[in-house]
Design goal:
By secondary structure, the chain is mainly alpha-helical. The protein has one domain: Arc Repressor Mutant, subunit A. Helix content is 46%, strand content 7%. It has a two-stranded antiparallel ribbon with strand order 1-2. A hairpin with a 4-residue loop joins β1 and β2. α1 packs parallel to α3. It starts with a strand and ends in a 14-residue tail after the last helix. Bound molecules: FE2/S2 (inorganic) cluster.
Length: 70
C-alpha cells in the first residue's frame, strides 16, 4: 500500500526502515521523506510506523506537540 503519494513511500518501505533500526519518526521522515511535503500522509505514516515498532517490540517515541499559531 502506498502511504505517501508525494514520495512514493509504501507501508513496506516504512516497515523495512523499522526493521533496519529506525525507531524515531523524525528519522524516518529524513530517510524516506515520508510526510515531508504536503503532509496528507502524516497520520497514516505515523500509524504504520507505530505498528511496525510495536511489532518489533520497540518503544514508540512520543509524537512531539504540534506548534499552534495564534
Ligand atoms: S502524501 Fe506524503 S507528503 Fe504528500
Amino acid at each position: 500500500m502506498i502511504v505517501c503519494l508525494c514520495h512514493r513511500v509504501s507501508d513496506r518501505d516504512i516497515k523495512a526502515a523499522v526493521g533496519q533500526g529506525t525507531c524515531c519518526f523524525e528519522v524516518l521522515q529524513d530517510d524516506l521523506r515520508v510526510a515531508s511535503s504536503c503532509g496528507c500522509c502524516h497520520d497514516c505514516a505515523r500509524e504504520v510506523f507505530d505498528q511496525a515498532c510495536s511489532a518489533r517490540g520497540q518503544a514508540v517515541a512520543p509524537q512531539p506537540a504540534l506548534a499552534t499559531t495564534a
